[in-house]
Amino acid sequence: MINTYSSDYWSELSRNNHRFDVKDSIEMLESLSVHELMSMADSLTDLQIGNRVTFAVSYNINYSNFCAASCPICAFYVPAKIRGKTDRGYELTVDDVKNELEKAKAFHPTEIHMVGGFNPYLPLEYYEEIFSTVRNYMPESTLKALTIPEISFIAKVTGNSVKETIERLHAAGMQAHTGGGAEIFDPDVRKIITTPEKISGDEYLNIAKLLHSMGIRGNSTMTYGHVEKWNHIADHMIKLRDCEDESPGFLSFIPLKYSPENTPLMKMGMVRGPSPGDKDLKVIALARIILGNSIKNISVYWVAIGKGIAQMALTGGGNDLVGTAVSEKIFGATNRHEQTTVEELSSMIREIGKIPAKRDTFYNIRGYF
C-alpha cells in the first residue's frame, strides 16, 4: 500500500537533507505530480547550485566501433568477430585522430570526449599513443576518455591489472573518465540490456572508487527508458550516492535516455519506442532530490531527450547541459542527428531566466554569455 503524502511533506524531507531510500522514492513519485516534483527539485537546485546553467564545449572522437559486447541497447557497435569481413567497422589510426583534432580546433573545445567499442584487437599501447597525441595537439583541452567498462575490458584483453591500466592511461594523457557504461545496476535488468562481456554494477562502482582514489574524477551515468522500473532507477541513483559519499570523485550525474531506433532490443520487440517526456522530467527531478547533496551537478543531455524537454528539465532539477557534443556518433547511430552551437545552448538557458556559463570538465567556469 503506497502512502500519499502532500508535497509539503516531501519538500520538508528534502530541505532537511533526508537520505531517500527506494521506498521513500517510490512513495514520493506516487504522491506528487510531475509539476510538483519539478518544483521541489528546482527549489533544491537554487539552494545547491543557484541560477547558473553550465555546459562544456566538447568534441567527440569515437576511436572504434568494433565491439565484443554487442549489447541489445546499442546501435553503434559492429561485432568484433566480423572484423576483416565488413566495411562497416573502423579503427582510427593516429593520423585519423590528428585529422579529427584539426577539425576540433575550429570549435575551441574545453574537452575532448573519447570512447569506443570493446575492441579486442587493440593493444594498450594504442590507447597510450592516441591519448598522448591528443594531449600534445590540444594541451588546452581536457582529455575525458573511456567508460568504466571499457577500462575493465582493456585491462582484461591486454593482460594488465585494472590499476596498472589506469596508471598507464593516466600517464599517457587521460585526465578524467566519462562515467559511461553504468546502464542500470540491477542485475536482472542488466542481463536483458547488456551481455556478459560488460562488467556488473558492483564492478562499475568498485572501479569508480579505484579511479577516484587515484585522483581521476569523472561523471556518473544511468541509461533509462528500456525495460527498467522506477525502483531500479531509484536504486541506481542511491548506489551512486553511496559510492560518492564513500569515495568522492563523481563530477556530475548524467541520465542517458535510451534511444531505441536500430537497436537489437527494439528489433526483438522488447521496447516499442522512446520513453515519454514526462518520464525524462521525473528522472531529472528525482536525481536532484536523491543525489543533489552528494553529486550536485545534475546534467541534462539534450542529445538524448531533445532540446525542448531539456529546457524544461533545467527548471526541474537540472543545472548542466553536458556539452556541444560535436561529432557525436553513438546516439547518431540511432538516427538522432541533432546538432547545436554555443550560441543556441546559451539562448536556451537565457530563455528560462537562468545564466549560461561555459565550463571545463571539472566544472570550473571559463566564461559567461
Describe this entry's structure for a reader.
This protein starts with 6 loop residues before the first helix and ends with a strand. It has a single domain (35-368), classed as Aldolase class I (TIM Barrel). Helices cover 43% and strands 14% of the residues. The chain has 15 helices and eleven strands. It is of the alpha/beta class and 369 residues long. It has helices spanning 7-15, 22-31, 34-48, 94-105, 124-137, 148-158, 162-172, 187-193, 201-213, 230-246, 264-267, 277-291, 302-305, 307-313, 342-351; strands at residues 52-56, 58-62, 66-67, 78-79, 111-115, 142-145, 218-224, 250-257, 320-323, 355-359, 365-368.
Which helices and strands, and how do they pair?
Elements: H1 7-15, H2 22-31, H3 34-48, E1 52-56, E2 58-62, E3 66-67, E4 78-79, H4 94-105, E5 111-115, H5 124-137, E6 142-145, H6 148-158, H7 162-172, H8 187-193, H9 201-213, E7 218-224, H10 230-246, E8 250-257, H11 264-267, H12 277-291, H13 302-305, H14 307-313, E9 320-323, H15 342-351, E10 355-359, E11 365-368
Parallel strand pairs: 1-9, 1-10, 2-5, 3-4, 5-6, 7-8
Antiparallel strand pairs: 10-11
